[in-house]
Design goal:
Elements (H helix, E strand, L loop, with lengths): L4 H17 L4 H13 L3 H4 L34 E5 L2 E4 L4 E2 L2 E7 L2 E5 L4 E2 L3 E9 L2 E6 L4 E4 L2 E3 L2 E3 L12 E9 L2 E6 L5 H29 L1
Length: 220
């Protein structure tokens, strides 16, 4: 990506700090400053700081990465889905509340999380299913945990595909009676880029939720 004047100035400021700290000599400073203001891309700027600390408390961190814009969270919808002798579904871009309640009696429900935005790092899908079925689709990198009770029924869950302790978690709870839950893992059409946007959105929503909780406790 092309570097801006602000990017070059930011790197130059870090070089001036390094000179003042004695990390580089005046000759090295002059040489690197020339490289900075002749640089046209981030790839040309990054080597200038490769042997310098990236963080100098309490000063700001020099970050040459450009963050992609984060979409606004989708509007809230009812956390309850009911299918009695019929079907219900939730797909596309939707906001997953802390708990989603699913009830199906002689019916079926489909939940597609591939473009969904989780309101927190771990959400719960509470399922009550009698003579019915629930089909769930999740993207790579999402952990699904079965914590429900099954009587003449059961869960068909994929194996974890991530070891990241901060990976989003969808926890299944509730009761299955003569019914079942099937979870499949599929990639979204946007690939890795879409996955990064989803993860960024999840972390932002989670941080917002924690901040609001702290403010409410201070208010009391």
């Amino acid at each position: 990506m092309r570097a801006s004047d602000a990017d070059r100035d930011q790197v130059a400021d870090r070089l001036r700090e390094a000179l003042a700290e004695g990390r580089i000599t005046p000759e090295e400073h002059a040489e690197r400053i020339d490289l900075v203001y002749n640089a046209k891309t981030y790839a040309e700027l990054e080597p200038v700081l490769h042997d310098l600390p990236s963080v100098r408390p309490p000063g700001p961190r020099v970050d040459l990465r450009k963050e992609e814009p984060v979409l606004a969270p989708p509007p809230s919808q009812s956390p309850n889905l009911v299918a009695v002798f019929g079907a219900a579904e939730r797909k596309g871009r939707w906001l997953v509340e802390a708990t989603t309640n699913v009830a199906c009696v002689f019916g079926g429900v489909e939940l597609d999380f591939r473009q969904a935005v989780l309101s927190r790092g771990e959400v719960t899908v509470n399922i009550t299913c009698v003579f019915g079925g629930v089909d769930i689709v999740v993207p790579p990198g999402v952990r699904v945990v079965g914590s429900n009770t099954a009587i003449f029924g059961g869960n068909d869950l994929p194996e974890d595909d991530t070891t990241d302790p901060d990976a989003p978690v969808i926890r299944l709870t509730g009761l299955l009676m003569f019914g079942g839950v099937t979870v499949k893992r599929r990639e979204t059409s946007g690939g890795k880029g879409a996955r990064k946007n989803r993860q960024r959105e999840i972390h932002r929503m989670h941080h917002q939720h924690r901040t609001e909780g702290h403010e409410r406790r201070r208010g009391h």
